Write a sequence for this structure.
C-alpha cells in the first residue's frame, strides 16, 4: 500500500534546500531528514532522489546500508546498549538481555559508544550512562517513563 | 567576594557518571551557602575512574576531588573545599596523582585544563605559516610521526605525496570514525581540545596546498560532534579559519560530516565513499587516496591523533617530538585503558612501556579483583595478548614482530571468567555484521567463521573444524581487501592459540589442531 503523502514533504524539502548544495550531499541530507522526522520514510526516497539528481536506487542503497538510519519510527525512548568487547568484559551482554526483557523502550545494539572505561555503557535518548547495572537501568527507564 | 572557579568535566565519559547533576548540585549548594562559584565545564583529564572529577581553584592551587557524587556535594562544602579543605574525596593537584604524573602529555597537554573554547595561542599554526610547505612536510617527516589510526604509516610521506601531486583541488580529511571498542582518545580530544585538531588539520592544509577539510565523525559521538562544531564556529569567528588562516595565510575551512554507524567506514577508502554520499564500501588500492582520494582529488587522510600531534611538532620542533618513544615508534601514544580494569582512562605515554606496566602499575588490574586472563590490544581487530607477552615493549614494530598490533592504542582487559571461544566467535560475528560485502573472504568467511567456531565448541568433529578455522583465517588474512576481513583472524587465532582449553581443546588435542 502506498501513502505517497503520509510523511512531511515540506520538512524534507527544507533539508534538501539547506543541504542539497553540499559536496556529496546524500549523507547530510539523510541525517537532516532523520533528525527532523525521527526516521527516513521509504516514501521520501523519491523526493530525495529527485532533489539531489540521483536515482532512487542510489538513495535506497545508501539509506539501507548504514545502521544509523531507520525507515520506521523508533520505539521511544531509544536505549542504545553497547555490545563491543570492553562492555562485554563487564557484563554488557547480560545488560542487553535485561534491556530486551524489561521492555518499555526501543533497544538498539551499538558497537561502542566510546565510553569503554565506564563500561558497561548505554545511551538513553542521547544521554550517556556508564557503569550500568540492571537495577540502575530499571530505575532510569522508570524515570523516563514517568516523565512522559 | 570573588567567585571560586570550579571545574567539572563535560566529557561524555564524565556525563556518563552524572557530571551534569553534580555541576547543578554544586551551583545550588553554592547559592545556598553564599559561597559564589564560577563553574567551568572543561574537558576530561583522562583519569576516568575518578569521574566526575571536580577541580577547585583554591588559594593553595588547583585541587581535585573525586569521584564526586551528588550526595557528596554537601559534605564537600562543609569541609570548605573551596579553600582546599580536607575530605575523603580530596585528591590534591591532578598533576601529583601517580597515574597522571608518570605521563608525558604532548597531545593531551591542554585537554581538561580549561573550557575547550577558551582562546589558545595557535603557536603551531603560526610556526607553520612562517615556513614553506616543503619545510612543514620536512618537520613532520623528521619527527618520525606515524599514523595513529592503526596502520602506523609515516605521516610525512603521505603528506609529501599529496604535496607533490598536481591537481586543481586537494583535500584534508580527518578520520574521526573511532569505532574500535576500547578506544576513546579521538572523542576526548574533540570534546576537550578541539582547537588542537583544527590546528593540525590547518597545518596539513598549508603543507599540501589544500583549501578544504572534512572531518568524518561517527554518529555514536553526539557530544563530540556538537563540541567540534562549536569549536569550528568559534575558530571562524576568531578569523583562524576562513578566507585567510589566522588572517594572513591562505583560505581553509573544515566541514563536519557525520557517519552512519558503519564500522568499516573507519577504513579510509570506505570513508571517502561515505563522504561522497555512497555506501561505505572499500575501494581497491591503488590508486592511493594521496593521489586520487576524495572526489578523485589528492587527499591527506589522517586520524584525529595524528593531526593533533602536529602542532606540537611545529611549535617545539621535530627533534623534541622524536626524542620520545622507542625504536621506530617516535613520540607518544595516548593509550586508552578500558574494560574490566580498576583504573580506566587515557594515559599518554611514550612508546616502549610494557603492557604489564600499563595494565597493572597504572590500571591496577581488574575492577573486580579477579586475575587478568586476556588483554586485547588494538581494538576488535587486535589480538588477545596472553600473559607470556605482557613484557613486550608497546611499540609498533615490537608488536608487529609477534603478530600483534597496537592499533589506535586501545587496551581492553578481561578477567578469568571470559570465555575466549565466545570472544573469537564475537570477532567473526562482528565482522559479519560490519563487512561491507565487497570481497568474498570477509563477506562469506565471517559467517562461516561463526558456524565453524560453534561446531568446535559443540565438538562436532572438533579436530577437523579447528583445521578448517585455521584455513579460513588464512584465506581471510591473505585475501581480504582491507583490515576488516584481513585482521579479524587476529583476535580469533590468538584466542585459539593461547586459550585452546576454552575451545574444548585439551593439551593432547592441540597437536590435532
Amino acid at each position: 500500500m502506498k501513502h505517497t503523502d503520509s510523511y512531511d514533504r515540506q520538512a524534507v524539502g527544507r533539508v534538501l534546500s539547506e543541504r542539497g548544495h553540499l559536496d556529496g550531499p546524500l549523507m547530510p541530507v539523510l541525517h537532516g531528514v532523520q533528525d527532523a522526522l525521527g526516521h527516513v520514510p521509504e516514501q521520501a526516497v523519491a523526493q530525495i532522489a529527485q532533489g539531489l539528481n540521483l536515482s532512487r536506487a542510489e538513495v535506497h542503497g545508501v539509506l539501507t546500508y548504514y545502521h544509523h538510519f531507520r525507515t520506521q519510527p523508533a520505539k521511544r525512548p531509544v536505549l542504545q546498549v553497547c555490545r563491543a568487547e570492553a562492555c562485554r568484559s563487564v557484563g554488557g551482554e547480560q545488560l542487553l538481555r535485561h534491556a530486551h526483557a524489561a521492555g518499555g523502550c526501543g533497544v538498539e545494539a551499538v558497537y561502542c559508544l566510546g565510553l569503554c572505561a565506564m563500561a558497561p555503557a548505554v545511551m538513553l535518548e542521547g544521554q550517556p550512562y556508564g557503569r550500568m547495572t540492571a537495577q540502575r537501568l530499571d530505575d532510569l527507564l522508570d524515570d523516563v517513563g514517568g516523565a512522559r | 567576594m570573588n567567585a571560586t572557579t570550579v571545574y567539572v568535566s563535560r566529557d561524555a565519559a564524565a556525563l556518563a557518571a552524572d557530571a551534569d547533576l553534580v555541576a547543578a548540585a554544586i551551583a545550588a549548594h553554592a547559592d545556598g551557602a553564599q559561597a559564589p562559584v564560577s563553574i567551568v565545564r572543561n574537558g576530561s583529564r583522562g583519569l576516568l575512574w575518578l569521574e566526575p572529577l571536580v577541580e577547585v581553584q583554591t588559594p593553595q592551587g588547583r585541587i581535585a576531588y573525586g569521584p564526586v557524587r551528588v550526595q557528596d556535594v554537601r559534605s564537600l562544602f562543609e569541609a570548605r573545599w573551596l579553600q582546599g579543605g580536607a575530605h575523603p574525596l580530596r585528591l590534591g593537584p591532578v598533576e601529583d596523582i601517580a597515574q597522571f604524573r608518570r605521563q608525558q602529555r604532548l597531545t593531551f597537554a591542554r585537554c581538561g585544563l580549561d573550557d575547550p573554547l577558551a582562546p589558545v595561542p595557535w603557536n603551531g599554526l603560526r610556526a607553520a605559516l612562517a615556513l614553506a610547505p616543503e619545510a612543514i612536510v620536512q618537520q613532520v617527516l623528521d619527527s618520525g610521526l606515524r599514523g595513529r589510526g592503526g596502520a602506523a604509516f609515516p605521516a610525512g610521506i603521505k603528506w609529501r605525496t599529496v604535496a607533490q601531486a598536481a591537481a586543481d583541488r586537494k583535500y584534508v580529511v580527518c578520520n574521526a570514525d573511532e569505532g574500535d571498542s576500547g578506544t576513546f582518545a579521538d572523542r576526548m580530544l574533540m570534546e576537550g581540545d578541539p582547537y588542537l585538531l583544527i590546528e593540525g588539520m590547518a597545518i596539513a592544509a598549508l603543507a599540501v596546498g589544500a583549501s578544504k577539510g572534512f572531518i568524518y565523525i561517527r554518529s555514536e559521538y553526539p557530544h563530540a560532534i556538537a563540541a567540534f562544531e562549536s569549536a569550528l564556529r568559534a575558530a571562524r569567528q576568531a578569523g583562524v579559519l576562513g578566507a585567510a588562516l589566522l588572517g594572513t595565510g591562505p583560505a581553509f575551512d573544515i566541514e563536519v560530516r557525520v557517519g552512519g554507524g558503519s564500522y568499516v567506514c573507519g577504513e579510509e577508502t570506505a570513508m571517502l565513499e561515505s563522504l561522497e554520499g555512497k555506501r561505505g564500501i572499500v575501494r581497491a588500492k591503488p590508486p592511493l587516496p594521496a593521489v586520487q582520494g576524495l572526489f578523485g582529488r589528492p587527499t591527506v587522510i589522517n586520524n584525529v591523533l595524528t593531526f593533533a600531534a602536529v602542532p606540537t611538532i611545529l611549535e617545539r620542533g621535530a627533534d623534541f617530538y622524536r626524542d620520545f618513544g622507542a625504536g621506530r615508534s617516535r613520540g607518544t601514544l595516548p593509550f586508552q585503558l578500558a574494560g574490566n580494569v580498576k583504573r580506566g582512562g587515557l594515559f599518554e605515554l611514550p612508546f616502549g612501556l610494557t603492557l604489564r606496566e600499563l595494565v597493572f602499575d597504572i590500571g591496577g588490574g581488574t575492577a573486580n579483583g579477579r586475575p587478568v586472563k586476556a588483554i586485547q590490544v588494538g581494538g576488535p581487530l587486535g589480538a588477545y595478548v596472553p600473559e607470556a607477552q605482557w613484557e613486550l615493549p608497546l611499540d609498533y614494530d615490537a608488536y608487529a614482530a609477534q603478530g600483534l598490533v597496537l592499533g589506535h592504542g586501545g587496551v581492553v582487559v578481561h578477567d578469568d571468567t571470559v570465555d575466549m571461544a565466545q570472544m573469537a566467535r564475537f570477532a567473526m560475528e562482528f565482522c559479519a555484521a560490519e563487512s561491507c560485502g565487497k570481497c568474498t573472504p570477509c563477506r562469506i568467511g565471517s559467517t562461516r567463521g561463526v558456524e565453524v567456531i560453534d561446531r568446535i565448541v559443540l565438538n562436532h568433529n572438533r579436530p577437523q573444524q579447528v583445521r578448517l578455522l585455521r584455513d579460513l583465517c588464512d584465506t581471510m588474512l591473505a585475501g581480504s581487501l582491507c583490515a576488516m576481513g584481513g585482521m579479524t583472524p587476529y583476535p580469533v587465532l590468538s584466542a585459539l592459540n593461547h586459550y585452546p582449553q576454552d575451545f574444548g581443546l585439551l593439551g593432547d588435542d592441540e597437536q590435532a589442531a
Residues 78-147 of chain A form a domain with the Glutaredoxin fold (CATH 3.40.30.10). DSSP finds seven helices and four strands in chain A. Chain A touches chain B through 46 residues (CB under 8 Å).
